Structures are given as C-alpha cells and as structure tokens.
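Run log, item B.
One chain of 206 residues. Sequence copied directly from the ordering sheet:
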Amino acid sequence: MSHDHPGPDFTAEEALARLKAGNERFVAGQARFPTVQKEVLAELARGQRPYATILGCSDSRVPPELVFDAGFGELFIIRVAGNVLGPAIAGTLQYAGTHLHTPLFVVLGHDGCGAVEAALASRLEGVEHRSRIAWLLEGIQPALDGVDLGLAPAARLSAAVEANVRWTVRAIRESPEGAARTAEGRMQLVGAVYELTTGRVRFLGD
C-alpha cells in the first residue's frame, strides 16, 4: 500500500453527481450491472483510480456498489458496523486520500441500523453487550448526545442514525488530515443515509 496512484479524472462535484445518478438508476430498476469483460479486469489490475471513498455500514442490505450502480474500480469502500470511525478505519481513509487521491468521501449510514439501535439501548436501558461489541458501540455514544431521547422509538432511531453519520463526518473533517485536505480544497466530505424500503440515498446538507 505504499505506492502512490494518479487521482481519478473527476472532481468531487462530478463524483457526487455520479453517485446520485447511479442511485437514481438503482431506485428506478435501471441499474446497469453488466458482466465485466476480461479486458476491463486486465486494465484495472494495473492500478485503481476510484472516484469516491465510501465509509459505510457492514449491513448486508446496503452494498454500496449496488446502491450507487457502480462498477469495478469506481468506489473505494470501507465497511464496519455502524460506520464507526476507529484507528484502522482512519488509516484506510488516509490511504484513500494520500495515495488514491479520491476527491469525494461519503459517510453512508442507513435507517434501522442495528448498531445505532444497540447504542441507544445501552444508553436508555443499560443493556450490556460483549466486550468488543461494547467497544464498537462506545464509538457511537457521542453522536447520541444531541438526540431527543423522548421521541417515539422509530423517530428516535432515525434521528440517531443521522446524528451518527454527522458525528463521523465531523470527526473526519476535524482530524489533522481531514482539516488539511479540506483547507487545500482537495477533499469534499458528505454524509448520507440509505433508505432500506425505497433504496434511495438521501444526502445530508451541512
């Protein structure tokens, strides 16, 4: 992972437009998803130039390549339960920025997220989890500070999912690497929430 790669031929705005257009095709049932030709694989084997980096949840119902109708080599994807930011995740994000030069970074949460729901249960009811799961959920707890815990369960979970995405976006943006790349105008960072029932990705404003 030490080799630098030329950046993709897209600006952050063009990358975001590609994601939105791909999601529209997916929602409309018009996803391309063609068979990949061996010639394409051979070309990709020479190096990768993904136009976006996605930090998403491990949930099996939210595969970013399908959700954005993206092909081989287009997205650099990191998946972890609850799209939680940890040292290994941060290191992978830094690799994407430093060596792959992806102009767009997306934190992709999804409604009904089990990790966020478990973090809420820990806070509200003192539910205990196995040690490593508890460690994972600790990464979500700070995001819940601004959530109205008096909301009805469904609304509360929805608010917590969005808050968790925004928290991770903020943590990346305020990291030394994120702050430097943003100041240099070399990175656009956005949050988004995938709707399980419709397949639509809702991009969050600042």
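Observations after the first pass:
- The chain has one domain: 12-204.
- Residues 153-174 form the longest helix (22 residues).
Flagged for discussion on Thursday.
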